[in-house]
Automatic annotation (TrEMBL):
This is LysR family transcriptional regulator. It comes from Altericroceibacterium spongiae. Keywords: DNA-binding, Transcription, Transcription regulation. Belongs to the LysR transcriptional regulatory family. GO terms for molecular function: DNA-binding transcription factor activity; transcription cis-regulatory region binding. It comes from the Bacteria. Residues 6-64 form the HTH lysR-type domain. Gene3D superfamilies: Periplasmic binding protein-like II, Winged helix-like DNA-binding domain superfamily/Winged helix DNA-binding domain.
Length: 314
């Protein structure tokens, strides 16, 4: 099968917008921000090369002719996907367990995905399906609506987890930069000095950008020199390592190999590693999945943990 010009997540956003005709209502129903809904739709339209919705300020979005045609094909696609999923339901008793997992992008890319082959070879009776999100993007309601068996993600320290979530570890966040940006005396630069340094920010108009600018403003920092924008935090960290600019990052987004060259110029609070497990009867296979997810992250020597509370988890 050729690579498709869309992701399942983009199709979920498109379907929700067709149902609600409201970016706000779709964001609330999916448990993500309106900016994320808009960005997913924009990316889908760019990849397809067509406009799916007419968008006019103050009015509900309306399907274009191309959007109507795409909706018809999407419904056929959804019916076929449901039929394919039915094969798994009919054979669930013999083919084992399928786990749906929500996970932060850096956790998946840097810690879990590199170790998945070993787990799947050792446990062929267990299937793992992941939905990958950005830092600070998810909401408790979205995690706990029944679609996920597990979740593992980072959130700011002031975000309060629900009853079925555990805070496992804590790490620093703030403005990071190459050591060359430190003053000659080695002390941390003040806010005025930081404002004049070259900043690398997330994509313009995105939820991460708005969050970062809000946190910076609350600390009296207004970046004057924005040298680059990227939605990819690994790219941002790589540019920081090369001394091309400074950026707001969480400690885990910096490769442990880069930490000798990168330093924390200004601390801006802590982020927590949060884990969730859907309430269900005891199952040894689910325990194996839990142990794999947590060990992949917390036992990795490259994962920076300021405080760990692993004994009470999940």
């Amino acid at each position: 099968m050729q690579n498709m010009p869309f992701t399942l997540r983009q199709l979920q956003v498109f379907s929700s917008l067709c149902d609600t005709l409201s970016f706000r209502k779709s964001a609330e129903s999916m448990g993500i921000s309106q900016a994320s809904i808009s960005a997913q739709l924009k990316t889908l339209e760019q990849q397809l090369g067509v406009m799916l919705f007419h968008r006019t300020p103050g009015k509900r979005p309306e399907l274009t002719g191309e959007g109507e045609a795409f909706l018809l094909d999407f419904r056929r696609f959804a019916q076929s996907a449901e039929a394919l999923a039915g094969h798994r339901r009919r054979t669930a008793g013999t083919c084992g367990l399928q786990c749906n997992i929500y996970i932060g992008r850096s956790l998946f890319d840097d810690y879990v995905r590199p170790k998945m082959d070993g787990f799947l070879i050792e446990h062929p009776e267990i299937g793992l399906s992941f939905e990958v999100g950005l830092p600070g993007e998810c909401h408790a309601d979205y995690i706990e609506n029944g679609r996920f068996d597990f979740a593992l993600f980072h959130q700011r320290d002031d975000w309060r987890p629900s009853t079925h979530m555990d805070v496992l570890a804590c790490m620093k966040s703030g403005i990071y930069g190459h050591r060359k940006f430190l003053p000659a005396n080695g002390a941390a630069p003040d806010t005025r000095a930081l404002e004049t340094m070259p900043f690398i920010l997330p994509e313009a108009g995105s939820a991460p950008e708005r969050m970062q600018l809000r946190v910076l403003r609350n600390r009296g920092i207004r970046p004057r020199r924005i040298v680059c924008r990227t939605p990819y935090f690994d790219v941002m960290a790589s540019m920081v390592e090369r001394g091309l600019g400074i950026a707001c990052l969480v400690e885990n987004q910096i490769s442990h190999l880069s930490r000798q060259e990168i330093c924390l110029l200004y601390e801006m609070g802590r982020w927590n590693l949060i884990a969730y497990r859907k309430p269900c009867p005891p199952d040894a296979r689910l325990d194996r999945v839990r142990d794999f997810l947590l060990a992949s992250v917390l036992d990795d020597p490259g994962y920076p943990v300021t405080r760990a509370m692993v004994q009470n988890m999940m």
